[in-house]
Every structure is written in structure tokens, then in C-alpha cells.
Amino acid sequence: MSSALIQTKSYPTWNSRWVFIMAATGSAVGLGNIWKFPYITGENGGGAFVLVYLVCILLLGIPVMVAEVMLGRRGRQSPVATMRQLTNEAGLHGFWNSIGWLGVVAGLFILSYYSVIAGWALAYIPEMGRGTFQGAGAAETQLFFDTLLADKGRLLAWQSLFMLMTVAVVACGVVKGLGVAVRILMPLLFVLLLAMLVFAYRHGDFAAAAEFLFRPDFSALTGRSVLEALGHSFFTLSLGMGAIMAYGAYMPADTSIGKTVLTVAFLDTLVALMAGMAIFPIVFANPSIHPGAGPELLFVSLPVAFGAMPGGLLVGMMFFILITIAAWSSAISLIEPGVAWLIERRGFNRFTANISLGFIAWALGLGTVLSFNDWSGFTLGGFTFFGAMDFLTSRIMLPLTGLFIAIFVGWVLPQMTAKSELNGEGSRFYPLWLWVLRYICPPAIGVVLLVGLYDTFAAVS
Known about the structure:
Elements: E1 5-8, E2 11-14, H1 17-28, H2 31-43, H3 47-75, H4 79-90, H5 98-129, H6 138-150, H7 152-171, H8 173-203, H9 206-214, H10 223-236, H11 243-248, H12 257-284, H13 296-308, H14 312-345, H15 350-371, H16 385-412, H17 415-421, H18 429-439, H19 441-460
Antiparallel strand pairs: 1-2
Helix pairs in contact: 1-8, 1-12, 1-14, 2-10, 2-12, 2-14, 3-4, 3-9, 3-10, 3-12, 3-16, 3-18, 4-5, 5-7, 5-14, 5-15, 5-16, 6-13, 7-8, 7-14, 7-15, 8-12, 8-14, 9-12, 10-16, 13-14, 14-15, 15-16, 16-18, 16-19
């Protein structure tokens, strides 16, 4: 058997705390860090938003992540089966089984559009290599991006390639697939990020970027900015998607959940800040590029900068490989909870479970592909299909699952269960964690959820 895992009671278990850390960090580090975090930071004023985001990670993300990992390790099964076992053991209402189902469904929904956006990054790698953006201006890069989005055949091809990459890893199993992938992809991601930082330091305006990211300007902060930070703290840590609970099932019994989660949260936040410091120096070195350029910052604005800098095309190719790796490490964790459930409860083997769920996510992704071309004129409540899927998952399903986890672990699950799993006896941190999970997390997450629902009804009306 692989040195990465050992078999315990017929369920695979990471034999190293660091393998779990790499796996959980790989799940957490994704497009949210490399693609979304820089542009929402730019849209929300920079340093003040970063500070609020860090507070949200500390007060909301980490406590809920501890609870989710604890549930996974306690159940040692897929999220759906874990919740069913815990509720049955404690004689609780079956309603709480919805935590497992919400996570599995949210993960598949996210994977459906995640694979399309990751496909964009894949499409840019060969274009950077062949010099398409050499000396290109904003008009040329905008035209390239618009042409890519309008060509549903190309989008479908790149989406399909990324989905095949994802299914191939998970089909190889927890031992030879997930374990090997995270041990290769995560170190490679950090190496590429460091190389990008060196390039940004030498060829960009590093001082302006540091001031923008780390000097708070609270006048630029709005209520919506705070809600954006709250929501993103969930998205970036992969909370409520079933992935962290599924990976928690593979965690060694003698490993400290609290210390491990702190390490994962630190590495995830470090990647987001490193990505910001790799991107914004290049942005500020080019006056024509605005830091609040939105989602097109990476696919329209940065290619202009790469095409104008010495060695920029090679670095640009490396940058889009970095985005692809980040997305890949997250995508394999999004499909794993559903695969584990099909294997446990429906008698599927790993290959057929992967093919089945991969096809479902791929088929759903066709709606996202068409949202940028044939279906761009069709909206529901002001949302395209892609916009609706993104809003449903990031603003509704993830906060709802996180809210249920906080309430379930904080108020409903017998405290001896959580205390024994977290080694809470005599710990001065356990009472603090439980207090935050009970009294801080539910109202804060509830606000995010209610505002999301309000926005939905307002848009429809």
C-alpha cells in the first residue's frame, strides 16, 4: 500500500498530518484565491477589505472548518453517510442529514461552472506560449477573450479536457489518485507562486501593490464589502461543499484538528495574499489597468502587461498553469464526496462513480458555456444560467450548509462527541471555540444568507 495512507477499519486514512494538510489546502486553494480574491479586493478598496476578510477567516472560517473536519473524522464515511450515522446515534431528527446532501450537491454545482472557468485558463496557456499577446493592447486582449467566450465549441473542448483531468485523478482512488496528486500539485503551486512574486518584484510596482493590499482605507469599505468578505471566507476554505468533511474522514485519529485547521487556513490565506502580491505589482506598473477591473482582470488586463514585459509571455504561461493547478486541486475535492457516497451506498466502483458524477457536472456545465454565447440574452431574475449557479452556491447553499453545521455541532450534537473528538478535556481553547461557534457564527452567517435571499427576490421583482 502507498506510504501516503494506511487502511483503518476498511476506510483509508492519511498516515501523515501533512498529507491531510496538503489535501485540505489543495481543496481550499483554488480559483477563489488566484482569480476571485485579487479582483474582489480591487473592487472593494484593497487593504480594508483584506483586513475584514482576515477577521472573517478567524472568527467564522476556522471555527466552522474545525466543526466540519470533526464531523468527517467522527463518521469515517462520505458526508451523507456520516450525517446519517451521527444523527441516528444521537437519536436526532433526520433533518440534519441535509448537511451531507447539501454539501454533495453544492460541490457538483460548483464543479459544473468551475470546470468552464478553469477551461479558460487552459486555453490561455498555449496562446501565451505562441506569443499571441506579444505587444497586444487592451482592445486586442478584450477581442481575444470575447471571441473565446463566443465560441461554444472551444469552451466545450477546454471544459471537457479539464473535467477529464479531474475524473482521471479521482478515479485512481484515495491512495494513488488524491494522495499522489496533492503531494505533487501543492508544492508545484507554491514554487510557481514564488517565481511569480520574484517576477512581480523585479518588473512591477511592488511598493504600490503592498500599500494597496496592506494599508487599510476604511472610507472605501461598504456594508456590501463586509458581506463579500464573509461570503468569500466560506468559498475560499471550501466550507459547506462536503469536501472538507470527506477529507476529514481520512484524517488520523491522533492528529489535532484545531492545529491542523489553523495550518490549512494560514496556507490558504497566504496563497491568496501571495497571489495579490504577484498580480497587483504588474497592475500598478501599467497605468491603463485598473485594480478593480473585475473578473476580466486576469483574462483581459494581465495579458496586456505580460505581453509588454521582458520575458512576460513565459511568465504569463506559467501564471495560467498556476491557475489551472489551483483549480485542479480544488476540483478533485468537489467530486470526491459524491463518489464516496455512491461507492458506499449504491455499490458503484470508483470508476463508474466518477464517470457518472463527472458526466452530471459536465452536462450542467453546458449551461455555463452557453451563458456566454447562445443563452446570454436569456436571464432569470437578472441572472444568466452561470450567474444563477454562482449565486445559488456561493450566496445560498454554502452559507446555509455552514449555518447548519454551526448550529448542529454547537447546539444539537451531544457535547461529549465533539469534546472527545477534539480532545477538549482541559483545553482552554475548546470553550472559546464552542462559544464562537454558538454565538458568533450563526448570526454572522445568517446575515450573509438573508442578504443573499433579499438580493434574489429584489432582482426577480
